[in-house]
Amino acid sequence: MTLDDKLIEQVTRLVMEEMKSSTAEESESNSTCGNCGIFDSMDDAVKASEEAQRKYLFSSMEDRQKYVDTIRKTVLAPEMLEKLSRMAVEETGMGNYEHKLIKNRVAAEKSPGTEDLITEALTGDKGLTLVEYCPFGVIGAVTPATNPTETIICNSIAMLAGGNTVVFSPHPRAKNVTHVLVTALNQALQEVGAPANLIVTVREPSVENTNQMIQHPKVRVLVATGGPGIVKMVMSTGKKAIGAGAGNPPVVVDETADADKAAKDIMNGCSFDNNLPCIAEKEVIVVDSIADSLIWHMKNAGACEIKEESTINRLLQMVTNDKGGPKVEFVGKSAPYILNKLGINGCENVRVIIMETKKDHPFVMEELMMPILPIVRAADVDEAIEIALVAERGNRHTAIMHSKNVDKLTKMAKLLQTTIFVKNAPSYAGIGVGGEGCTTFTIAGPTGEGLTTARSFCRKRRCVMSDALHIR
Ligand code: NAD
Questions:
Q1: pLDDT tens across 222-250, in order?
Q2: CB distance 272 to 320 below 8 Å
Q3: Which residues line the pocket of ligand 1, CB cutoff 6 A?
Q4: Which helix (H) or strand (E) holds 300?
């Protein structure tokens, strides 16, 4: 008997599914924390979170920091870090294991804890007034398939540091890896004496469950890390909403840049986790006089250039859908995988697929989230910045520039108004990987919190003591 490819693929998928759910169930059944934060219904999850919040209000700041440290320690245990990174790639079918390791590690190490909550004190003849960052209560957080565990790690640290509890509604494609992480965090938090259910989720993530969470009266704040649809949805609820939406980061390279370094930085940023991060380089606009040199250096650093118009068109047809957006089956896939599907073999070491295009080509204007990087030539740096402004599409998310001209660097930063602007480095320097500053995977452009930390998830409250406690 011979099996055709389709049947083999179906059987493999079924076996993989079975293995994945048994891994998740296994880790739940080996646990000592009951349901370990995983609930059959969204209503039960929210109710448990509210109950936990009532208790959590009376935890000391020292305890809160202990819980943050516990989250860090749990994720950073080598076995857990490897398991989360491996499962995320296998389950979602997107991204790169080594890069997920880096992303999960940096989320656990560099998301700020309670030290982020700096109290303001005003003193004078009338006494002492304190302004403190206080919890909102139960936060409903929607998380993406592209950074499934990274987002849960950094949100959990920041939200718990701020005194909140959190209900996660993950992408259904990341169900099992979410369960493994939430179970491990609940188990570890229970072992250090935390109230149960500070971090919860549902057994079957779905659009219906997300809608129920969004509308639930006990959920005080909504945080959406995802595409424009979900961000718009949480922003139109009438509740406090934090929206971390899509990007389409342009890179401008001008004639003053170090072409070799710029090429290496662009290749490193663009290929990171197969281009899944919302901050990753999505199109290059280069001043004509340095373009040939930049492309030459990019090829030396692992780029494959497609020159034939017909092949570029075939690639476009292959990776985009009827609406012009990326086809799900190619999002987060590697360059060799994409080339292979295009019928170009033997490219195992290719990191990024490049091609020259016009400034309004769909590869430039669409957020593809795969290592396909269009290159647009501009006559001079001013024209390059104008093209970048249009290509960024008003997301005001992330932009990158390679230049030694401080005036032009300043011009681009002012015009594009992105939350993150990286100069002379790969995009990930903007989230603390090879650049100064903390890390987050929830970058809230639309609602203005920027790179979210504990204080982004807090209310400011004033506490006034009249006529006393000033000591000057
Ligand atoms: P997505 O928008 O498809 O899904 C994000 C989340 O929203 C998922 O949990 C999904 O289940 C939920 N969702 C989507 N549509 C919904 C609907 N109609 N009703 C209820 N729930 C819905 O995005 P994705 O593929 O998971 O992630 C990629 C997108 O997220 C990209 O656009 C990327 O730029 C963006 N993103 C932004 C940030 C940031 O910090 N700004 C971080 C990561 C990802």
A1: 999 999 999 999 999 999 999 999 999 99
A2: no
A3: 142-147, 170-171, 207, 210-211, 225-227, 229-230, 244-247, 278, 367, 441-443
A4: helix 288-300
Residues 177 and 296 occupy one common structural domain:
no
The string of pLDDT tens digits covering residues 389-415 is 999 999 999 999 999 999 999 999 999
CA of 454 to the centre of ligand 1 (A): 21
Residue ranges making up the domain that contains 139: 37-245+452-462
Q: Is the dihedral of CA 354, 370, 376, 316 positive or negative?
A: positive
Whether the model pTM is above 0.90: yes
Query: What is the DSSP pairing of strand 138-142 with strand 221-225?
Result: parallel
Query: Residue 360 sits in a domain of what CATH number?
Result: 3.40.309.10
**Closest C-alpha to 152, from 219, 95, 74, 212:** 74
Which active-site residues does the annotation give?
278
Contact 381, 403 (CB under 8 A): yes
Q: Which helix (H) or strand (E) holds 129?
A: strand 127-135
Distance, in Å, from the CA atom of 377 to the CA atom of 180, rounded to the nearest integer, reads: 47
- Residue 64 belongs to a domain with what CATH number? 3.40.605.10
Ligand 1 pocket mutation pick from 91, 92, 142, 279 by most atoms within 8 angstroms of CB: 142
Domain assignment present for residue 21? The answer is no
3-state secondary structure of 252: strand
Judge if 187 and 317 occupy the same domain. no
